[in-house]
Write a structure and sequence with these properties.
The complex is a heterodimer. Chain A is α+β, with helices and mostly antiparallel strands. In chain B, the strands form two sheets. A six-stranded mixed sheet of chain B has the order 6-7-8-3-9-10, sandwiched between helices. Chain B is globular, with a radius of gyration of 17 Å. Classes of the chains: A alpha+beta, B alpha/beta. Chains A and B meet through helix 17, helix 25, helix 26 and helix 29 of A and helix 2, helix 3 and helix 5 of B.
């Protein structure tokens, strides 16, 4: 009954404010749920891709490099107990439609019935015909208006191939008969496969052990589910960082629930005191206000889960693009639905409830602790609600010490959990210090402003100083959003500038050439005809060659490359060393950190020819991939892998030849399906991928800031209701309605300025932790600090304007509420 | 637009003023055809039971509310014809208010509470006038205190000083002793009487206390919305 009278009815009465609270909570929960769904769906896309590859197989054999067909005879003894089928999995470039298509090469005839492929009797008996039949996913056909029987030209291993198109039975891959795939992908080399599918009627574990003994050490045999887990692990740091960022909005929401319940307590203190005088226990009042926090959190949380589900598909697109750009190109192929699981409901509501109870605890205790005699005495409304702020700085000092301690602790399983803890304690340290800062800034500010006859801003400062606890929470909420936004902006801006400078060092040539179907996971070797022509292209003074390939080191994926001058004295990438210097074996910083190999350390690398015993001579800064890059000199590479075949070429223009002219010469003289990129375009593309990667980060920050600004509007609206009496007094004393409105706007302006000052402090701490701890532990790279000053100033100005704008509605309400009735209510 | 100079004649005049709240069958008539004129320097007490319409009348006289019918002239200006801003400026210059519940601003010190009317009218010599006002009500020592650090009597003395600090032509005091004990109430009424006399301010005092009304030049009775002479 008390709940209805003291909580539900007022919440219903102030419906606008209640709705604002609910929207703020809902947005906080929505962000968490959207990222949770998107992260899960990104992993599910691996599962979907792997399921199509496996097609019911018990085991998959894959390796860092393609598996040679010559290996198959060694597996013949296992044929009695298992069916072993090779496959190719590559990405082709469609130059006509500027699109990419993932192709699975398999024995179409053998697998026709298993995969639901309808082949004609002729095709089943004598192969799929010429031009080869390519079964293309339905959505690809629709997207490019292709019909069954049309011819599609694709770039494969740097050459154009024609295919006859037919619809594929499933939506993830294009299917190509294995002999045609081998002909298309490996025209000049001995046949190789990207993997083997193994199906057994017996025990898969026992068979896996026997298979592992029969294949090269670098190759792996695993169940499809284990492969999915490995791929998911590769994304772990990215997912963890995204999830951590998503919780910031909830943290800001938590501050706002605190303010909502806190203001409820202040506004209903007379009712609370009356209830206490009539015999209500402290415990029942505590429960009552905890119930308010819980009710707001649960309703807002339920809305948040649904909203999270709605925005998850957009988040999923952004996450998948990033995953496809940086980790697994094929991840963008499978487009799983952003479905809402029952665990999402549990997680969203559980989080909201926990946040609601946590945030409501302090104000509920305050309500339970109110003394009826004090509250009910005449004139008690004039008791200022100044909180003791003395505990602020010692608490802040302890939290700052914890921040330093957490920042020094190492990663746990490559995850910067202590780094996240350091970021949280840094935010909390500033939050704890905020009341103390305000208690020392606002009273003198009030005195100075009033003495100098800045009446409205002086009254605003006085009002903020008088309600220190409420002001502090408001400032903390906005400052947290600002701090995270600016901190991440400093990190991203620094990162971008670091990458920009690194690209200038890496990209030394005027024009770069690679196969049109080149991708990070399959840096396709350039055809011999291209290499032959490359040395005679007119206008090129010199040609740099680079071979890049994926590999496995200590069961983890890495990238190996080697570079040399193909013609003349070509400019090769310049390395900036973190430790050591140039030599036969240099490693990237992520490689050194992940495997703890630094200059002077020796290690053994398994290679197709023989194990190589190598010594690290230098560790260089590198931002191409967090999986780690091992760069060998050509002679060392050849010892292990044989002579390298260029996967990329860099051309330097001869004297008097412009890069544009060289570009044209290359297009004319180099045969095949190739991509030509001049230096500036390549740098622009690389930075484009970078910006794409951080688009979701910006989206999360904007939502967090929106929650905080909604909170400002909401709290000021509550302040208007709470201070209607004060505004009425001012009206009696001769303040105009416009002055009352300006008073509110001035308060919002002061709150925004204080939040910006504290937010900048938080931002500095967070930027340092993000750059020096979380990024190093998550991805293994050191970022040079290059704060984007202009952006930071612009963003700060925008936040100030948005915060003041959020006060417009409450300011209008203040004009309406400043009436004699407000005094009579007292 | 209200002029800046005081107008001759009554400082406030109500002609056949009525005030109704609500509509239809639920309508309540708080004031019925009230006519009243207060001359400069006059001390008028309006007595009556709680709910009799005293506060409503004071709000109307002070231009904080509008009558349902009738006209109010404040310092010679018909309040119905003034814009909200013009009425506010007139009120700022002409009126001082004292309330039963003191209504000091909780986040301001005593000195700042006293200064608010001066700040709002951009007056000069604010610190000196605040110090003088505090001295007149015997609260110099309390200038740096906040309202919650004052007793009820002290808070009401501050309210009286605030109401008179800008030398208004009219002070509207609504049950200023309602929350005070007998001794504190006597001090407050004495102060109100003495200071208004010194400054030549008229006072309209709404009260149900005969003791408070003792100082009045004229005492009226408001019952059931009708204003008349006090019963003998």
């Amino acid at each position: 009954m008390f709940f209805r009278a003291l909580i539900a009815r007022p919440l219903r009465h102030d419906l606008g404010r209640t709705l604002l609270s609910l929207v703020a909570i809902a947005l906080g929960v929505a962000v968490v749920i959207a990222i949770r769904i998107a992260n899960r769906a990104a992993v599910a896309s691996f599962a979907s891709t792997t399921a199509v590859l496996a097609n019911g197989a018990d085991l998959l054999v894959t390796g860092p490099a393609p598996i040679p067909a010559t290996l198959l005879p060694r597996l013949f003894p296992l044929n009695a107990e298992a069916e072993i089928l090779p496959f190719l999995h590559r990405r082709a470039y469609d130059p006509e439609h500027h699109d990419a298509l993932d192709i699975l090469g398999l024995d179409l005839v053998a697998e026709a019935s298993q995969r639901g492929i309808a082949l004609s009797a002729e095709q089943s008996q004598s192969g799929v015909g010429y031009p080869p039949l390519l079964l293309v996913p339905h959505d690809y056909l629709t997207r490019h208006s292709l019909h069954s029987g049309d011819t599609l030209r694709l770039a494969l291993s740097g050459r154009l191939h024609a295919f006859t198109v037919a619809p594929a039975p499933s939506g993830d891959f294009a299917l190509l008969d294995l002999p045609d795939a081998l002909e298309a992908f490996e025209p000049n080399a001995a046949p190789t496969f990207d993997g083997l599918r193994v199906t057994t009627a017996g025990k898969a574990d026992a068979l896996a052990a026997r298979l592992q003994r029969a294949i090269p050490a670098a190759d792996t045999v695993s169940a499809p589910s284990a492969q999915v887990a490995n791929q998911a692990q590769m994304l772990a740091a990215f997912r963890a960082n995204l999830a951590a960022l998503s919780y910031v909005a909830l943290l800001v929401g938590l501050f706002l629930i605190y303010n909502t319940v806190s203001i409820s307590v202040v506004r209903r203190r007379l009712a609370i005191a009356t209830l206490r005088a009539l015999g209500a226990s402290r415990r029942s009042l505590l429960r009552l206000f905890l119930a308010e926090g819980a009710a707001l959190a649960l309703v807002g949380g339920a809305g948040g889960v649904l909203l999270g589900w709605l925005i998850a598909s957009r988040a999923l697109t952004l996450v998948q693009r990033t995953v496809a750009s940086l980790y697994v190109p094929g991840a963008a192929v499978a487009r799983p639905m952003a479905f809402l699981a029952s665990s999402d409901w549990l997680w969203g509501l559980g989080l909201a409830l926990a946040a609601g109870l946590l945030a409501a605890w302090a104000p509920a205790r305050q309500a339970a602790g109110l003394r009826p005699a004090t509250v009910l005495r005449p004139g008690a409304a004039e008791a200022a609600v100044r909180a003791r702020a003395a505990w602020g700085w010692p608490a802040s000092l302890v939290l700052a010490a914890a921040t330093v301690a957490f920042a020094r602790l190492p990663a746990v399983h490559h995850q910067p959990w202590f780094g996240f803890a350091a970021a949280l304690t840094a935010v909390l340290a500033w939050a704890a210090l905020t009341p103390w800062i305000l208690a020392h800034i606002l009273p003198p500010l009030r005195r100075v402003l009033l003495r100098r006859h800045h009446t409205l801003s002086g009254l605003a400062a006085a009002s903020l100083a008088g309600a220190l606890r409420r002001t502090a929470i408001l400032v903390i909420a906005v400052a947290t959003a600002i701090g995270v936004m600016l901190g991440v902006a400093i990190m991203v801006g620094s990162f971008r500038q670091t990458v920009n400078l690194w690209l200038a060092q890496q990209l030394q040539n005027d024009v770069f050439v690679q196969a049109a179907d080149w991708d990070r996971n399959h840096p396709v070797p350039l055809p011999p005809a291209v290499l032959a022509a490359a040395t005679t292209v007119p206008g090129a003074a010199s040609v740099a060659a680079s071979h890049t390939q994926p590999w496995t080191f200590r069961q983890q994926p890495i990238t190996i490359n080697t570079r040399w001058s193909l013609r003349g004295a070509a400019a090769l990438p310049r390395y900036r060393f973190l430790a050591g210097g140039p030599g036969q074996v240099i490693v990237s910083e992520p490689f050194a950190r992940r495997f703890r190999l630094w200059p002077g350390d020796r290690f053994t690398l398994e290679t197709p020819n023989r194990p190589l015993s190598l010594s690290v001579s230098g560790v260089f800064y590198d931002y191409s991939s967090d999986r780690g890059l091992l760069t060998l000199d050509p002679a060392t590479f050849t010892q292990g892998f044989g002579p390298p075949t260029p996967t990329e070429l860099g051309f330097d223009a001869a004297a008097g030849v412009t890069p544009d002219l060289l570009h044209l010469q290359l297009q004319q003289h180099l045969p095949g399906a190739l991509t030509f990129l001049d230096n500036a375009t390549l740098r622009r593309q690389a930075l484009g991928v970078f910006d794409q990667t951080f688009r979701i980060t910006y989206a999360l920050e904007i939502i967090t800031l929106l929650v905080a600004i909604l909170g400002v509007g909401n709290t000021l609206l509550a302040v208007v209701l709470e201070r209607a009496r004060e505004f009425a007094i001012l009206r009696f004393l001769g303040a105009t309605r416009t002055q009352i409105r300006r008073l509110l706007l001035a308060e919002a302006g002061v709150v925004a300025l204080l939040a910006l000052a504290i937010g900048w402090g938080m931002a500095m701490a967070l930027a340092y932790i993000l750059v020096r701890v979380i990024n190093v532990q998550s991805f293994g790279w050191t970022i040079q600090l290059h704060p984007p000053v202009a952006f930071l100033l612009l963003a700060s100005a925008a936040v100030w304007v948005a915060t003041v704008a959020a006060a417009t509605l409450p300011a209008r309400a203040a004009r309406r509420h400043a009436t004699p009735a407000a005094l009579e209510a007292e | 637009m209200a002029g800046t100079n005081p107008q001759p004649g009554p400082v406030v005049r109500a002609e056949a003023v009525s005030k109704r709240y609500g509509a239809g069958a639920a309508a309540t008539e708080a004031l019925r055809s009230v006519t009243l004129a207060v001359t400069p320097g006059e001390f008028v007490a309006i007595m009556g039971r709680s709910g009799g319409g005293k506060t409503t009348l004071l709000n109307l006289l002070g231009g904080m509310d509008v009558p349902s019918s009738g006209v109010i002239y404040l310092d010679g200006h018909n309040t119905a014809t003034l814009s909200d801003d013009a009425l506010t400026l007139l009120r700022r210059r002409t009126l001082g208010f004292v309330f039963q519940a003191f209504h000091l601003l909780p986040t301001l010190t005593v000195a700042e509470n006293l200064a608010v009317p001066l700040w709002l009218s951009s007056s000069a010599d604010v610190p000196e006038r605040v110090a003088a006002a505090a001295a007149r009500v015997g609260l110099t020592a309390k200038l740096p205190s906040f309202p919650n650090q004052l007793s009820g009597g002290e808070a009401q003395r501050v309210a009286v000083a605030r109401a008179l600090i800008h030398a208004p032509r009219l002070v509207l005091a609504d049950e200023p002793t309602g929350n005070l004990d007998t001794t504190a109430a006597a001090v407050v009424i004495d102060l109100l009487h003495q200071l208004s006399r010194e400054q030549g301010s008229a006072v309209v005092l709404a009260t149900h206390s005969a003791e408070a009304a003792r100082h009045a030049d004229r005492t009226l009775y408001l019952g059931d919305g009708v204003l008349g002479a006090a019963p003998a």
